[in-house]
């Protein structure tokens, strides 16, 4: 393999599989509360629980699958995880009561967490170390595209179709993801563990978490706690303020900004170091939250979308690149699962906590509060990583490359 090449066949297939898995995350998430209240006769709170159980399942999975990847192999975990995703989506059609739906959402979340962690780890292992920031930035565009296309598809189908059509689209996307996995080369990172058996035999928390990745993962947890306030509450906020049309374009603008900016921020990470990209991202998110809270019209909403999109585009891709950069080669799977477990925890906890805050602050006050928290993350990042970050350092020992067998 060309050591400088990023866009290999397996890289493109991995990004495509991740995009399809993420679509089946976002599409049901956007309509789950509505499905519970309208089709199953549940309350808004029960709808929120149905949505949140998916994230809880993904969190449970990410906390354990980093260890199991080194034993079973990444391709095996990805294949069987995507297969369970497909099966769980089929079960949506027979989820005729809340308890069945809760179980299906939890199983779907566990399978998604395993699949997404496995494919992310596989792709990270394919990228040359000297192009890691850029390569991970390109890969994570699959999530960016899904975050724009998924909500749009969900809202469009609900307006023109029904819930069964939603589930049918999810069946199609998960089926395609299984096909994509089949065409990926099978890796043999179980052999990586043979080179460094200590990685496999560690006990305690180190068997489930990569400690070198914890500081940056915690920073990203707090940032994604802030992001959850946008994802979960922008719809009722926009309805209250009469900004529904503008809000429907929020994630489109958010995604376009990430698509445009990420290749440049990835190269900055590789050539100038992480701080050049990370510090402006916290300021951008804080400014975007302030503008969103103060918005009176479409200009304010879409300006906030651009700023928040830029900020989280950097936090996600550069945060993951930092976690990978600091991790020994034999612990890559655990670094990936640690990072995304913390991200999922932030997204999962946010709506629960902020839902208790909103009655006291209102939506506007909540967004101002999130702006303050985002700005405080700048200092949190400085003390946990930024002050010790130098110029980009390429590990002397490359990440074990994934090989066809």
CATH arch. level architecture of the largest domain: Up-down Bundle
Class from secondary-structure proportions: mainly alpha
CATH superfamily caption of the largest domain: MFS general substrate transporter like domains
Remind me, CATH topology of the largest domain?
A: Growth Hormone, Chain: A
Strand segment count: 0
The CATH C-level name of the largest domain is Mainly Alpha
> What's the shape?
globular
The main sheet comes to: none
Helix content: over 70%
How far is the first residue's CA from the last residue's CA?
15 Å
Beta content comes to under 5%
**How many structurally independent domains?**
2
Poorly predicted ranges (pLDDT <50, ≥5 residues)?
190-200, 391-405
Our count of helices gives 14
Along the chain, the helix and strand elements come as HHHHHHHHHHHHHH
Radius of gyration: 20 Å
**Averaging pLDDT over every residue, what do you get?**
83
Quick gist of this model?
This protein has helices at 9-39, 44-72, 74-91, 98-126, 132-160, 163-182, 190-195, 198-201, 214-241, 244-248, 250-272, 274-294, 298-325, 332-384. Residues 190-200 and 391-405 have low confidence and may be disordered. The protein has 405 residues and is mainly alpha-helical.
List the helices and strands and how they pair.
Elements: H1 9-39, H2 44-72, H3 74-91, H4 98-126, H5 132-160, H6 163-182, H7 190-195, H8 198-201, H9 214-241, H10 244-248, H11 250-272, H12 274-294, H13 298-325, H14 332-384
Helix pairs in contact: 1-2, 1-4, 1-5, 1-6, 2-3, 2-4, 2-14, 3-4, 3-6, 4-14, 5-11, 5-13, 9-13, 9-14, 11-12, 11-13, 12-13, 12-14, 13-14
């Amino acid at each position: 393999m060309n050591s400088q090449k990023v866009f290999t066949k397996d890289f493109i297939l991995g990004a495509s599989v991740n995009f399809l898995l993420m679509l089946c995350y976002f599409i049901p998430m956007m309509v789950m509360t509505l499905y519970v209240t309208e089709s199953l006769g549940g309350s808004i709170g029960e709808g929120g629980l149905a949505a949140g159980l998916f994230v809880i399942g993904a969190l449970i999975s990410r906390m354990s699958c980093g260890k199991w990847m080194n034993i079973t192999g990444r391709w095996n975990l990805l294949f069987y995880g995507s297969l369970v995703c497909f099966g769980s989506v089929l079960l949506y059609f027979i989820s005729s009561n809340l308890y069945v739906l809760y179980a299906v959402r939890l199983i779907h979340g566990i399978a998604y967490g395993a699949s997404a962690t496995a494919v992310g780890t596989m792709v990270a292992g394919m990228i040359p170390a000297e192009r890691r920031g850029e390569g991970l930035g390109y890969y994570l565009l699959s999530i960016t595209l899904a975050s724009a296309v998924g909500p749009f598809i969900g809202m469009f189908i609900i307006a023109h179709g029904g819930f069964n059509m939603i589930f049918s689209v999810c069946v199609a996307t998960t089926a395609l993801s299984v096909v994509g996995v089949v065409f990926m080369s099978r890796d043999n990172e179980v052999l990586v563990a043979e080179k460094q058996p200590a990685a496999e035999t560690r006990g305690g928390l180190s068997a489930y978490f990569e400690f070198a990745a914890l500081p940056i993962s915690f920073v990203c947890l707090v940032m994604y706690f802030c992001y959850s306030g946008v994802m979960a509450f922008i719809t009722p906020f926009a309805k209250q303020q009469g900004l529904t049309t503008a809000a429907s374009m929020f994630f489109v603008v958010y995604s376009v900004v990430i698509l445009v900016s990420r290749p440049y921020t990835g190269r900055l990470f590789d050539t100038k170091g992480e701080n050049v990209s990370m510090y402006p991202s916290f300021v951008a998110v804080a400014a975007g939250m302030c503008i969103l809270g103060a918005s009176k019209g479409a200009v304010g909403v879409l300006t906030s979308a651009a700023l928040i999109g830029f900020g989280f585009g950097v936090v996600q891709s550069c945060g993951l690149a930092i976690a990978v950069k600091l991790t020994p080669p034999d612990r890559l799977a655990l670094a990936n699962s640690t990072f995304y477990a913390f991200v999922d925890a932030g997204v999962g906890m946010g709506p629960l906590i902020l839902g208790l805050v909103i009655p006291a602050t209102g939506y506007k006050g909540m967004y101002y509060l999130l702006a303050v928290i985002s700005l405080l993350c700048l200092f949190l990042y400085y003390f946990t990583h930024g002050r010790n970050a130098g110029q980009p350092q390429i590990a002397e020992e490359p990440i074990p490359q994934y090989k066809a067998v």
